Amino acid sequence: MKKKIVLALFVSITLFGLTACGKLDVVGEQSEKSYEAILTSMQSRVSADDSNGGWSLQSPDDEARFVWTKDFNKTTTDVMLEVAAQPFIDAGLDVTKLPEGMVVGDKIIIGTDLGDENVTYVGEASPLDSYKKLVKNYRDSISYHQALDHYGVKLGNGNMFEWAKDMKTNDKDIVFVLNPQPFIDAGVDPSALESWVFAKVETMDDSGKKIEVDKFLKPFDVES
Question: What residues does 153 pair with on adjacent strands?
Answer without folding.
Answer: 142, 161
